[in-house]
Amino acid sequence: MAEEQSFSAAVKAELALPGPELPCCQRMELAGLVRAIGRIELHGGGRVALTLSTDSGPVARKAIRLLRTVSQVEYKLVVMRRRKLRKNLVYRVFIPPQPGIRELLRMAGFVTPEGELTEWAEPPELANDHCCRAYLRGTFLGTGWVAAPEKQHHLELSTSATEAADALGQMLFRYGIAARMVARRDVLVLYVKEAEQIVRFLGVIGAHQALLRYEQVRVLKEMKNRVNRQVNAELANVAKQADAAARQVEAIERLKAAGVLDSLSAPLRELAALRLAYPDASLKELGELCRPPVSKSGAAHRMRQLMALSDALL
Ligand SMILES: [Zn+2]
Asked: Cys-Cys with 294: which of 143, 194, 269, 298 at CB 3.0–4.6 Å?
């Protein structure tokens, strides 16, 4: 399927591989993921359930592996096929109300330290650089998307609440990534369109293979653009020269037709004859053919005189 082969899917597959991570970072990666793809359901008596949904198999596997590693909560996995659109699979990890769920929600910034549900309560772990990277990795796995570098430069993350989006923007800013924000239906999207910043983000979240591929494509693309620019400039220059030479030939033919040419000084006659004999040569080359040879500016000076004389005939 196209989705499996996209650059974005490849980045997620790379990130979903088990890596050597600190326990704190595993928790914060899960936190980012829970925040990104978790939906809270309120049950009676202040009890809450949580459902994580994703259409990526690698992301679902990572979510489950992290849940089993860092949390003791009971969960149930359901896999369904969407009835509309691309009819792709949707993985749902349902976590019913239970004591361990509060800690999961706290880590993800969904509840205050006092246990109240809120839009965003920054988990203190995010003050650590390693944990912040892990949180961003979890966020990208959940809601991130990056275009293939061959096509365009675009990377985005999304979240539902303004405060969470602001916090995400600040986390990115810590790594020198200035994301812009736009509201799209019911989500807030943070996006980056500069290749250099996208590469930086891939480095921050530890997608090293993807980063290398991105850089490779970018360098090749820039090289191709540079060569194209040089070729275009060269062609434009040659075309300009050809136009000028054609106008010179025309002017000299006019002098000849008017019988003026033979009355001109020897140097002008010589250059005029050379131009007619070599319509494609540059002025520099014509100058070299003169006897004695003259410089490019010398030849240009003579040519200007010929042109002025011819213009006078019009
Ligand atoms: Zn950590």
From this structure: 298
- Cβ atoms of 244 and 299 within 8 Å: the answer is no
For residue 22, the CA-to-ligand 1 centroid distance in Å is 6
Q: How far is the CA of 125 from the centre of ligand 1 (A)?
A: 7
| 102-111 per-position pLDDT tens digit | 999 999 999 9
- Residue 21 within a domain: yes
Name the residue with tokens 């892990």.
134
Query: Which of 206, 226, 254 is the last residue before a domain boundary?
Result: 206
- The reply to whether 62 and 190 lie within a common domain is yes
Cα pseudo-dihedral 104, 120, 193, 88, rounded to 10: 50
Residue 127 Cα to ligand 1 middle (Å): 9
Residue 184 C-alpha to ligand 1 middle, in angstroms? Answer: 32
Q: Is the pTM of this model over 0.90?
A: no
Residue-number span of the structural domain to which 87 is assigned: 2-206
- Residues with CB under 5 Å of ion ligand 1 are 22, 24-25, 130-131
Q: In this structure, what DSSP letter does residue 117 have?
A: B
How far is the centre of ligand 1, averaged over its atoms, from the C-alpha of 171 (Å)? Answer: 14
Give the Å distance between the CA of 130 and the centre of ligand 1.
Answer: 4
Q: Encode pLDDT of 22-64 as tens digits.
A: 999 999 999 999 999 999 999 888 899 999 999 999 999 999 9
Whether residue 259 lies inside any domain: the answer is yes
Q: Select from 178, 217, 210 the least CA-distant residue to 194.
A: 178
Model confidence over 254-287: pLDDT tens digits? 999 999 888 999 999 999 999 999 998 999 999 9
The answer to whether residues 131 and 28 touch, using CB atoms and an 8 Å cutoff, is: yes
| Structure confidence at residue 39 (pLDDT) | 94
Based on the fold, state whether residues 153 and 66 are members of the same structural domain: yes
